[in-house]
Design a protein that fits this description.
The structure is a single chain. It is built from 2 helices and no strands. With about 70 residues, it is mainly α. The chain has a domain at about 20-50. Helix 1 (about 1-35) packs antiparallel against helix 2 (about 45-60). It is rod-shaped.
């Protein structure tokens, strides 16, 4: 019985660590985009568009599988 409880606790800890890593990744990338691609005094539409485009690519890219164009055809 204690082995099962240890496995459940270990699984919960692993899930919490994984979720913390995901939150840190997305928070960190948003912070970096705001820090380096934003100038509050001269925030133009072009800078906002570039920043928003990068945000969507980061979000989409981390959840979608990548295809290699150099894979052999069968």
């Amino acid at each position: 019985m204690t082995d099962i409880i240890q496995q459940i606790i270990g699984a919960i800890i692993a899930i919490v660590i994984a979720l913390g890593g995901c939150v840190a990744y997305f928070w960190g990338t948003n912070w970096l985009l705001d820090k380096f691609l934003s100038d509050s005094a001269t925030d133009t539409g072009d800078a906002m568009t570039r920043r928003d485009t990068l945000r969507s690519q980061i979000s989409r890219g981390s959840s979608s599988p990548r295809r290699s164009s150099s894979s052999p055809s069968t």
